[in-house]
Design brief:
619 residues; mainly beta; 5-stranded antiparallel beta sheet; 48 strands; Fibronectin type-III domain-containing protein; Ig-like_fold; FN3_sf; FN3_dom
Amino acid sequence: LKGLKWKCYIEASLKHWLMFCLFPSPEPCSPTNVSSQLVCSAGIAHVSWAPSANAVKYAMKATSNEQILSCTSSTPNCTLTDLVCGQLYDIVVTSTDGTCVSGYSAAFRQDEGTEREVVPHLITHLLTMTMAKKTNVTTNLLCGTSDMTVSWIPNALPFNYSVIAVPLAGNISSVTCKTSHANCSLSGLQCGQTYNVSVKASSGSCSGPYSHPQIVQTGCVYIFLYERDVFSLPLPTGPCDPVNVTSIYQCGSDKATVSWEAAAGAVAYTVHAQEGSSQHYSSCRSNTTSCQLNQLQCGKVYNLTVMAEDATCNSTGDISTTLMTAPCSPSVQNSTLICGTNSSSLSWMAMADATGYIVNATATNGHTVSCSSAAATCILTDLLCSETYMTTVTAQGSQCDSAPSSSTNITTSPCAPANISKQYVCGTSTAVFSWTDPLGRLSFLAQVAGEGYQDSCQTTNTSCAFQSLPCGLGLNVTVEAQGAQCNSIPSVSESLETGNTSTSVLAILVCLNHSALVSWVGSPSAIGFNVTLTGQDGHTHHCQTNTTSCQLPDIHCGETYDIVVTPYSETCAGHPSALYVFRAGTCSTCGIKYTYISPQRDNYKPFFSLLLSRSLCSQ
């Protein structure tokens, strides 16, 4: 009974006194095992505890920084209502037996090291970007990505937070992130879309409501609530990448036009053209959906990237295409005439990305020829002689051809000399030939040949003399012009007859009419012959004929005659034949077959037979 309070009564008289005490009932003990269960959606808490002996009623008090809540109950439980979100409540309970009130229970708290279970507050301070009014707000701008950082003013209590971005377009997934800090990064947002962004806090098993959804349009403008006021700022994470990028190279120039489809959130565009791994690049900027690149190099393949821009960031530049420029102009490295064919072979260095080549050649007189090839060589045919051709090579590309190369001159083989003139000097057996002077010649080679005889003359002049030509020959003369690489074809053959000589002279006496019949072997080029018969007594006879025989009258019998036959041609007289001595016999009657044996022959050759009659020819 120790520790109990007794209530005693005393009755007293003159003779004695009487004290009696009432057995005391113990006062209620302080409630124990206080616990609570939050109903987050209703903002209430069901608090319960272990029953206390002799308790007929309980009183509960919940104290936070902002309010004090209480309730009474005859049962060991009670419900707290009108809880303020984001507050921490200390809960205590007392019991009473109707007379006495117990002491307070131990304040209800969670065990050390765990979060206090409270109703998280409504996140009303949803922030995006930098606000000057709040110096404790920082911004992480993730330009060129699909990420966005959302931040807010946190509660003093250690809450967990969830951020959700719900797209207005139904075919796109929501994006969420969770954190225990006052900011969170949303990854995987699609550019050019509109999202409702909300934040909620949680503590323990209870979550607070989402904040008022804020409209966020990626690639354009964020709209957010700050201190329950609406603000808008440009989106820093960048617009969408342009799509359907195409390029058209402007043939014959160093320019190309690049076009694309408009990107959401873009206010301008920049086109970058990078040539492989080199340092060469070109760029242009436009606020429309096309742009012109300048100063592009020939024979290159450019990687094209179109970057969309807004006020703060660029797009990612993940979409690219290629642009192939026209091949560079080839340069002729070698040109070689193919002698005797009126052709020339050309070669040049192969150009990158060339699909073929075209060679064009134009002569000074306007004559044109061309050839095409898939390789870096080509043969021009049907070239005119003694001409200079201006030659260019063009490389063909898949879209455009190169500019023509710098011109290269091809001088063809000289033409064959023409209009050969000749002059034969009879006394010296010298022939002088002259001819035209074709373009491109360096020298000339003249040749005479015929009947086993051949001679040549090399000269840089347009004439040449052949001396001591054998007489009585029919010669052919040709002239060839010699060029730097090739010679002309020989000129048309010109004939030449050298001086003539008659051989095998024969004479007989014709007694019938006292004449001498003279015959000889003529020269092929002779057109006539002069026959002279001279007697020792000074008696002379002449005969001119275009045949190979001549009859001289009035021959004196018994006289000795010297006979000379001299041929002549159109140009000059030939050489006289060897002197032939003829003795006229005495006249008599006889019939004789006379055979002359030529001293220049190895065999007998009858030149003629003559029957003399009625006259007597004596030797």
